[in-house]
Amino acid sequence: MEKQEKSLFSFLNTATARFILVGILTLLLLIPLEFVRQLISERKHRQQEVIAEVNDKWGEEVIIYGPILKVPYKVYSETIIVDQNNETTKQRNSTTKYAYFFPETLSNSIDINTKSLKRGNYQSIVYSGGVTCNGNYLHPDFSDINTQDNAIEWEKATLLIRTTNLKNITKEVQINLNGKSYTLESQYSGDDYGNMQTLSSGYLDSSLFSSKKPKDFSFSIQYNGSKSIRLVPIGKTTEVHLTSNWHSPSFTGEFLPNDETKEISESGFSADWKILNLNRPFGQSFFENLPDLMEYSFGVDFIIPNDEYQQNERTAKYGLMVISLTFLVFFMIQAINKIHVHIVQYVMIGIALVLFYTLLLSISEHSSFNFAYLIAATGIITMISLYSITVLKVKKFALFVGSSLTCIYTFIFIIIQMENYALLAGSIGLFIILALVMYFSRKIDWANN
């Protein structure tokens, strides 16, 4: 029995046993790390709630397409009526349907001026901007449904614009068609989809359609909006020129801008699109119903790239790596130089390493992420380095610990700043670290140390 106790005591004093205990402690520290990650998620969710509230008051995302020429026409049918004397009569009935025609050419010029609105620790990117459109229509062609001219109600033709965010249009909207202006009014339409709403011109001058010459139009809309602005390419040829002072656009939707003319800088960006009717799966006219075309929209999202919560989340994902590497540094010093480090001291160091993430989160909410990372990392490195003087008894070992932690935190910072090469840089860095550990641990006697 005494031999077994001595054997167990001898094993607990070996490097192998200490390594196992440190490994168990590292896994246990995943619990507070998970709490930290949940805290980051809660703060991020709160940010999204505040942004949604701010955007609702300032203006939501903008999706727009138009103008669309809407022309009613009559469809006639006959009903045979049999009376009590078995005599038949024919009754002619008429039903009003609608045809929708898209422009032949459509040119859009969009100028967006963004700014940041803050509420507490949170900020939202909003914008004020104008959409100016011009183009022309060909004479409406009803040949696809073989309708006679006297069935077309030209005097009831209207122009429609489909858009979102009606409540944050800042100026009256007028459309000029062949030199005559029409004021657009909000109109309820039973075939509106999602958040799309309809602006209507009222009845057009029927004399416009007495000639089959192309008809020019132009209009502009001023919005307060947020998140994004998108358009649907309803012109047979659609051209868009978009400029903004926002420095980090995210182009989205079915069509991307031309690479040859796209320019992005710290002062803003400009982008151009040219889309032909061959590039989209719908034609220039619809009869009876106008379908939902939002899925063919394109434009730009105004996002904050790598905001502090995204960067905090990415940093926290490397928490296990930071704790493991830090413990490895202490363990290697302990094993090579035969210095006793108590498991409680590892616990203190582990708690300090977890504290780094709460410091980083709280400071980054009041300043830039880079500054918060510098302050939090400097504080933790200094605290652990000073503590290691007591633990390791030798100042040069404490200096080595401080240098190692500086390298670790610098390595993590470089990785989270990368996007395309983060995995490559991380893999190479871990390969180098493993090679160094294998080199310095080659003479450790795991059984007797």
From TrEMBL:
<feature type="transmembrane region" description="Helical">
    <location>
        <begin position="371"/>
        <end position="391"/>
    </location>
</feature>
<keyword id="KW-0472">Membrane</keyword>
<dbReference type="InterPro" id="IPR010364">
    <property type="entry name" value="Uncharacterised_IM_CreD"/>
</dbReference>
<feature type="transmembrane region" description="Helical">
    <location>
        <begin position="343"/>
        <end position="364"/>
    </location>
</feature>
<feature type="transmembrane region" description="Helical">
    <location>
        <begin position="397"/>
        <end position="416"/>
    </location>
</feature>
<feature type="transmembrane region" description="Helical">
    <location>
        <begin position="15"/>
        <end position="36"/>
    </location>
</feature>
<keyword id="KW-0812">Transmembrane</keyword>
<keyword id="KW-1133">Transmembrane helix</keyword>
<dbReference type="Pfam" id="PF06123">
    <property type="entry name" value="CreD"/>
</dbReference>
<protein>
    <submittedName>
        <fullName>Cell envelope integrity protein CreD</fullName>
    </submittedName>
</protein>
<feature type="transmembrane region" description="Helical">
    <location>
        <begin position="421"/>
        <end position="440"/>
    </location>
</feature>
<feature type="transmembrane region" description="Helical">
    <location>
        <begin position="318"/>
        <end position="337"/>
    </location>
</feature>
